[in-house]
Amino acid sequence: MDLKSELNKQPFQPIQVVLSSGDRHPIRHPEFAIFTDYNSVYVFDSDKSPQEEPHPDTRGPVILSISQIVAVEPLSQTAA
Question: Superkingdom, according to UniProt (predicted)?
Answer without folding.
Answer: Bacteria
